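Inverse folding, one chain.
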């Protein structure tokens, strides 16, 4: 049995298709506000025409709020090593002056630094480590104590004319440890405790003593008469470092 429902009739408005009527009654939007163009074409930023202004990428200095460190570009800044006080060219010139024990040039050592001594200290300690000796603290402690010892001895001998400060004394002692570091590298190929090791140890100790004494005496010309006492102090210092290699 089916049930019938009363469906009300659909009445369309007069005028035809309702979609056409609604489209006709819809209000056409007006054009948005467009400001007037600038009359002066020489000022591009006053023009509202986007296509007339060329966009340029900002420079790094402008992007980060101005110059960095007083420099307009990154190329004008100093290298990182120079900012840290490490000058490879200066270390090279000082190293070449150490490698010539016959004619020592003290001019590169007028500006003291600790970059080269730290480099040779690390090299010396690494060679000792290859020999099975962990002596990083021992070598560093002996360098500090020997620098203070040589500083006191030199200034006592020089008197009022002595102009050697502790920083420069540490720099000279550290650079002159290079021959002992070379001896530590050579001793890796030599039998321990042999006659050859003692002979080579004496050669490298005299090399370091000669260079260190020349640098100290040239820094104070009035101390030439005390050169023997200064050489004796330097000989004791580098003999201790050579004993670390032999024994």
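Residues assigned per position:
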């Amino acid at each position: 049995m089916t049930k019938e429902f009363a469906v009300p009739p659909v009445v369309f408005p007069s005028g035809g298709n309702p979609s056409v009527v609604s489209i006709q009654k819809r209000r056409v939007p007006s054009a948005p506000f467009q400001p007037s163009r600038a009359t002066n074409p020489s000022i591009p930023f006053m023009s509202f025409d986007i296509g007339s202004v060329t966009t340029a990428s900002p420079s790094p200095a402008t992007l980060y709020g101005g110059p960095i460190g007083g420099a307009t570009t990154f190329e004008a800044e100093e290298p990182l090593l120079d900012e840290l006080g490490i000058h490879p060219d200066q270390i090279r010139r000082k190293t070449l002056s150490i490698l010539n024990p016959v004619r020592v040039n003290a001019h590169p050592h007028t500006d003291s630094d600790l970059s080269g001594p730290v480099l040779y200290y690390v090299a010396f300690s690494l060679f000792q480590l290859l020999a099975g000796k962990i002596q990083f603290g021992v070598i560093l402690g002996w360098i500090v104590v020997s620098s203070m010892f040589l500083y006191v001895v030199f200034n006592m001998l020089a008197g009022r004319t002595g102009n050697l400060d502790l920083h420069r004394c540490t720099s000279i002692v550290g650079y002159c440890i290079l021959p002992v570091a070379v001896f530590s590298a050579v001793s890796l190929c030599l039998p321990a405790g042999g006659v050859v090791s003692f002979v080579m140890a004496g050669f490298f100790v005299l090399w370091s003593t000669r260079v260190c004494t020349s640098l100290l005496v040239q820094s104070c010309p009035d101390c030439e008469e005390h050169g023997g006492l200064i050489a004796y102090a330097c000989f004791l210092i580098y003999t201790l470092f050579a004993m670390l290699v032999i024994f």
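Residues 110-244 form one domain. The chain has a mean pLDDT of 81.
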